[in-house]
Amino acid sequence: MKIHEYQAKELFAQYDIPINEGKVCYTVDEVIETYKSYNMLTVVKAQVHVGGRGKAGGVKLANTLEKATTAANNILGMDIKGHKVEKVLVAKAADIEKEYYVGYINDRNTKSAILMVSKEGGVDIEQVAAETPEKIFRYAIDPAMGMPDYLAREIAFKLFDDIKHVRQAAVIFQKLYKLYVEKDATLAEINPMILTPDEKVLAIDAKMTFDDNALYRHPEIEELREADENEKIELFAKSKGFSFVKLDGDIGCMVNGAGLAMATMDMIKLYGGEPANFLDIGGSSNPQKVVDAMNLLLEDKNVKVVMINIFGGITRCDDVARGLITAMEQIKTDIPVVVRLTGTNDKEGQAILRGTDFHAVETMSEAAQKAIELTQS
Amino acid sequence: MSILINKETKLIVQGITGRDGSFHATRMKAEGTNVVGGVSPGKGGQNIEGIPVFNTVKDAVEATGADTSIIFVPAGFAKDAMMEAADAGLKLVITITEGVPTADVIAALPSLQKSGTKMIGPNCPGLISPGQSMIGIMPPNIFSEGNVGLISRSGTLTYEVVNHLTKNGMGQTTCVGIGGDPVAGLYFIDLLEMYENDPDTEAIVVIGEIGGDAEERTAAYIKEHITKPVVAFIAGQTAPPGKQMGHAGAIISSGSGTAEEKIAAFQAAGVDVAKEPGEIPALLKKRMN
């Protein structure tokens, strides 16, 4: 689960991680009021669940009321990579002597949390990783040991020479680790952490994501959820037991299993079509599941054809076929439906579908080709 | 031959009295797997379709000589179940449970390492050595005995591929579903090494997907260490960045973990990458001649 920068900074504040003061604003008037109360150089930052805000014009400095108003007018309502900006963070701009990168993530290779730090802060860290990987220092953290003082200091010495700065950074590493572990985060990033001319180390940006699998034990994090339009659809799908991601194509996909669902989308693309979505409906032949999934797909007005790809394993294909027929009796639609059933009792399943309105095919590639053909008719 | 499990494998089921645990315990038994016991705290002394239930894993191991366990407990209890299996000294643990917090897996792994217990999963379909033993939730009838080894991050996509293999007369030594989570037990490289050393495995299929860089590391390993032919398939070429595609681990983060990078890495290592699952048997045949 993603949260906004202003929310991550609230968590930082709870854990005594130094940040620059700021306030979230939903209207131009609120921005003006906040600027007046600070009456200094401020930064107005779009709050959206996507990176690259600065490049998209979603982050502006303002040193006059007029500039703050212009920034608020421009940024609020702006579209950043398909995300509409509904709120901004107005924060006191800090003087920057130097910028650093600090980030905790879970690492597949060491099978642990790792801390990554770099003197190349304030820029896209993936670019640093790709071009100059030697400028990023990585430390795998033993979960039993955590982040003891000596280790935090040792890592801080990679960024600073002066012990006064090292001590401040080490404390930030420890507090951020505590926050990361206690809240089951999957990312806790400060980019940049800065050194100010008066020798303070603080976080002027904050990014956190959380483990969806662990939200059950963190209701206070679940409360921070602010879903945008696409995320709302995905959450609705989740409440039905599905995994769903909307795309821009015209072939709606319904598949059992995440890997097969991805392979199905790829297959459509391979034969020259465009998938409208990723949808994993999980196991079982329950007709209600198919009804719910069809309703979800048909909400997308771009969908011209639905392609159902089911591997019948423990759930036999003949049961799945009967479930599909029952489901379609409840849904009134002219949209053509291509069905591909394979696995246990597939011949029986295909026989049941013959003579119905379904376009029943045997292989995934046939299904993709048939679906594409139907979008063109 | 096979890897990890065979006719001798003695299995216990942790969470045997739950809906999934009891259903799959009886299915595995019907397939000929030596299901020697189950564990469910407070239900020791009962039995499920003739399988004795114990209160603790230690009790089950002492009474039955089990060396392997499969875990079906709910996600919130999985960490504890993994640690209990490790503490009882089991050789292999297969965690089927999905939705386990990543921090719990990270916390349990040191215990497993200390006892030398190997783990597959979590969030996986398990593994099968056709004709010998099935420890998992897969449909057994699509598998057949033979000499192809398979490793996959997915469930139904694995079945899709296996179905193509079996229909083309290409049976399997062992098929392992390593699971779709970001942090898991045995991974591609560990299993490739086992297949390389298994005399009956003549070729290997690797099914990867977007997210992380395990496939890239695997490609580098294959180039250095694997002499047997390897064919790969990568799912998620059309996945948008920043979106989790069902599996918790299947996400393209800041432009890395894409299917293109993984395919390029495999090709650079001399591994044939199938464009679609149905192409895999033909690519294997070409390499096995």
Biggest interface between chains: A-B, 56 and 64 residues
What would you call the quaternary organization? heterodimer
Extended strand count of chain B: 14
Strand element count of chain A: 18
The average pLDDT score of chain B comes to 94
- Calculate the terminal CA-CA distance of chain A, rounded to whole Å: 40 Å
Computed Rg of chain A: 26 Å
Topology order of chain B in helix (H) and strand (E) letters: EHEEEHEHEHEEEEHEHEHEHEH
Helix content of chain A: 25-40%
Trace the largest sheet of chain B across and list its strands.
3-4-2-1-5-6-7
Beta-strand residue fraction of chain A = 15-25%
Characterization of this structure:
- The complex is a heterodimer of chains A (377) and B (289).
- Chain A is 38% helix and 25% strand.
- Chain A is built from 13 helices and 18 strands.
- In chain A, strands 7, 8, 9, 10, 11 and 12 form a 6-stranded antiparallel sheet that branches.
- In chain A, helix 2 (28-38) packs antiparallel against helix 3, helix 5 (149-156) crosses helix 6 (163-182) and helix 10 (287-298) crosses helix 11.
- Chain A starts with a helix and ends with a helix.
- The mean pLDDT of chain A is 92.
- Chain B is globular, with a radius of gyration of 18 Å.
- Chain B has 289 residues and is of the alpha/beta class.
- Chain B has 9 helices and 14 strands.
- The longest helix of chain B is centred in the middle third of the chain and has 14 residues, at 102-115.
- Helices cover 34% and strands 22% of the residues of chain B.
- At the A-B interface, helix 4 and helix 9 of A face helix 4 and helix 5 of B.
Brief rundown of the structure:
The complex is a heterodimer of chains A (377) and B (289). Chain A is an alpha+beta fold and 377 residues long. In chain A, 38% of the residues lie in helices and 25% in strands.
